[in-house]
Amino acid sequence: MEILSFDIEGKFAHFRKFHGNNTAMSYSIPPRTTIAGMLAAIMGEEKDSYYENYQTQNLQIGLRVLSDLKKSFHRLNLLMIKGNNDFRGGKGRVQTPFEVVTGSDLKKDSVRYRIYLAPGKNREIFDQISQKLKDNNRQFNLSLGIAGFTAFVSNVQEFTAFEKNCNGEWINLHSAGNSEQVEEIDFPDNPEFKFNHIEEELLPADFIGGKKGREVYRMNRVLFATRNFPIHVKLFGKYFQLKRNGNSEETENFQFLTYAGVFTQQTD
């Protein structure tokens, strides 16, 4: 299968949990909807115009964590706004918790992810995004979640990945994996594996688009490590394997995010 991968990196990230109310909690990794927004920014798509075209059936997306991640809470001292005349602070201020994703050492480290893309039913979208990335011709600046957390792209490469099928075999999975296909996780007697930190999240996968616009339609249930180290899993299902620079020591096993069978909204 034809694969395009690229790395995205920034100093800070915030991917707000969609069910949060007055507390701005963050996912550790960008949901598929956020990655689709980044790709739409690369293409120069208008706001709210791309949701249907970038749904899972049209474009396959996978994700790998490339740096050790850390989350911390901070207090934002925001203006209390209840009317048009409150922008000078007349109603005082309100403190709102805000969660930020950073590298382990804020001075030296950054937040880095690797994105995998493959064509779905709409081959044209994949080809257009690939060309934009290879030409370094992005239309809008990218960010990791919010506009102030600027990000940049590097290491754009094309590969041929080989499809593999597991029926309960143990593999080292480098990317975020689909939880429903993982039966068991092992922590071999190895310091790297033993102290691997793993999270599971239910993430927005697709927006409905059309008249309903930015309403969550499908979800991904995802398992991932919060550091650049694979998860040792017993897997049932499909995954892909690629070798960087033809070097067998740089083999990567990864999955594309698939529906978790959870729907928060139905289309008409």
Overview of the molecule:
The chain is mainly β and 268 residues long. Helix content is 10%, strand content 47%. The strands form 5 sheets. A 5-stranded antiparallel sheet has the order 4-7-1-9-8. Strands 10, 12, 15 and 16 form a 4-stranded antiparallel sheet that branches. It has a 3-stranded antiparallel sheet with strand order 11-14-13, with no helix packed on it. A hairpin with a 3-residue loop joins strand 13 (198-209) and strand 14 (213-225). The relative contact order is 0.23. The model has no long low-confidence stretch (mean pLDDT 90).
Helix content bin: 10-25%
**CA-atom Rg in angstroms:** 19 Å
Please give the order of strands in the largest beta sheet.
4-7-1-9-8
Query: Are there runs of 5+ residues with pLDDT below 50, and where?
Result: none
SSE order = EEEHEEEEHEEEEEHEEEE
Overall 3D form: globular
Oligomer: single chain
Q: Counting H and I runs of at least 4 residues, what is the number of helices?
A: 3
Largest sheet: 5 strands, antiparallel
Q: Strand tally, please?
A: 16
Distance between the termini: 33 Å
Sheet/helix structural class: mainly beta
Share of residues in strands: over 45%
- The average pLDDT value, as a whole number, equals 90
